[in-house]
Design brief:
about 500 residues; alpha/beta; six-stranded mixed β-sheet; 19 helices; about 40% helix
Length: about 500
């Protein structure tokens, strides 16, 4: 996501009340302000070093209520019902404040025209906002009720192919949909694993996720089952290329090129089949490509190499879903004793000093400077558990999560030049496909009154019917009939509401 030196000017224009902001106060140096905060527990430990450092630097005291991630939603619902709210609520892994908190006036609107806390005290936060990123900042009805963690890199999943199978069959890595299909046919018919049996699965995905094909046809699923087309959000089932895409998938399924159990595969079953030399292509994270290559070699397939390929190029170009750009959000409760102090605390996390602290910890303890840049020390670069145990990139409050932090911990402090062939697979899988990544839109766009009531009756049947068509169980007339029925039942109303939200966010 692009940054721009004009971001602050843009945001001030967007948030302006029409007059000059009141003079902003500062946190007092001679008085310690207490802020109560509810936060989920990932692998961060209570009273970790980063939290302690933030308190010392700002002269504040953070009094935490820690909630295990396993029952976080249940806990925050109980807190909301009680009416006894902490000053700050950190909504674990949520991209927006749950609607009930806004509807019950439990959280403050941070861009309230009468008291614009973001304009007064959020300059570090808003400097990362651009016109492109503004839709992600809104929580409800065009209002900003929280500050979100900004994930400043797109790395997520990539398509992984068996390069040793390609070499065995004297094939090049496919780049287009047509080339991909031909490679799959060769994987199916020409015994690339060399065991004399037709047991190869050319293409395997988890939980029925065939998005890589939809992406090639330009059907980028940006939120729920919606894709953007000609400036509007439409159900992906109405995209003009949808039938062409599922017709191809139906053909591939009939030829046995797509795993016959693609709708129910989970990670353990995927890993077992890949590790026993049965799978030609799968969709996975970079680390999984390294893990699975090592597993294959440990099982006796010494030349096995499962590495990334760029996304297939089709009529819709080359696209791949990236990591969601915003996650865990922090809100200030309507009963906060000192909302301005709360805003200054959150804003500090987005300052240059705050970014270094939250991503790399304390200099000399958690990191050292190399050529002026922070490099994590052991054991904090050796695992996410160790890093988050110290409060580094913990993911349970709002901050800027940097690319450098992600790569250092993912590769245990090693640079690309220091990685061996297999470990370098993961690096390339993450980094080299970044140029093709697109971002999902905020899930809050689909949090509409009608969708809350009818979603289970609409989207699950549509997905099931799509799979039935691909698997040859039903015909196209059946699919169109169900689509027409569900559009009348409520899909069209949901689409209208979703676009109303989308227009508000823009």
């Amino acid at each position: 996501m692009k940054k721009t030196i004009l971001a602050l000017i843009l945001v001030l224009c967007l948030l302006s009340t029409g007059g000059l902001a009141e003079a902003a106060r500062s946190l007092p140096e001679d008085e310690t302000i207490t802020i109560t905060i509810l936060e989920g527990v990932n692998s961060n430990k209570e009273n970790n070093a980063v939290e302690q450092a933030v308190q010392e630097k700002l002269n504040i005291k953070l009094e935490y209520t820690y909630v295990p991630s396993a029952n976080f939603d249940e806990k925050i619902n109980t807190v909301l019902a009680s009416g006894e709210l902490p000053d700050v609520i950190s909504f674990l892994w949520k991209q927006a404040v749950p609607a009930a908190w806004v509807e019950q006036d439990a959280v403050l609107r941070l861009d309230d025209p009468e008291n614009n806390l973001l304009e007064k005290y959020g300059q570090n936060i808003t400097r990362f906002w651009t016109e492109e990123s503004m839709p992600y900042q809104y929580d409800y009805n065009g209002g900003i009720y929280s500050v979100k963690q900004y994930n400043a890199f797109p790395y997520l999943n990539s398509m992984m192919i068996r390069y040793d199978w390609l070499e065995t069959l004297n094939l090049e890595a496919p780049t287009t949909v047509e080339e991909f299909v031909e490679v799959m046919r060769r994987f199916k018919n020409d015994d690339p694993n060399g065991n004399g049996m037709a047991d190869e699965i050319p293409f395997m995905v988890l939980n029925g996720d065939l998005q890589v094909f939809l992406d090639a046809f330009g059907i980028k699923r940006v939120v729920g089952d919606y894709t953007e087309y000609e400036g509007k959000l439409i159900p992906m089932y109405e995209h003009p290329e949808f039938k062409n895409c599922v017709d191809l998938l139906r053909q591939l399924y009939s030829e046995g090129l797509i795993d016959s159990e693609y709708t129910v595969r989970d990670i353990p079953s995927r890993d077992e089949l890949v590790s026993t030399d049965k799978v030609g292509v799968t969709y996975a994270t970079g680390n999984e490509s390294t893990k699975l290559t090592k597993s294959l070699r440990a099982n006796g397939f010494e030349k096995a190499l499962l590495g990334y390929i760029p996304p297939m190029k089709g009529v819709g170009g080359q696209n791949i879903q990236g990591r969601y750009p915003y996650s865990t959000c922090m809100a200030i409760s309507s009963t906060a004793k000192d909302p301005e102090a709360c805003m200054m605390f959150i804003d500090y996390l987005f300052s240059d000093e705050g970014i270094e602290l939250t991503n790399f910890g304390v200099e000399g303890v958690h990191h050292e400077k190399v050529d002026g840049e922070p490099r994590l020390l052991e054991p904090y670069c050796t695992s996410w558990e160790n890093a988050r145990g110290a409060g580094i990139a913990k993911g349970t409050w709002a901050q800027v999560w940097t690319e450098d932090n992600f790569l250092q911990i993912t590769f245990q402090g090693k640079t690309l030049e220091e990685l061996d062939e297999v470990d370098a697979l993961a690096y390339h899988a993450y980094v080299d496909n970044a140029e093709f990544a697109y971002y999902a839109l905020p899930a809050s766009l689909t949090d509409t009154e009608t969708n809350r009531k009818l979603s289970a009756d609409i989207w699950s049947p549509m997905k099931d019917e799509m799979d039935n068509y691909i698997m040859g169980i039903s015909d196209w007339d059946s699919f169109e009939s169900l689509l027409k029925e569900l559009k009348e039942y409520g899909m069209d109303q949901i689409t209208q509401e979703v676009n109303d939200n989308y227009n508000l966010s823009k």
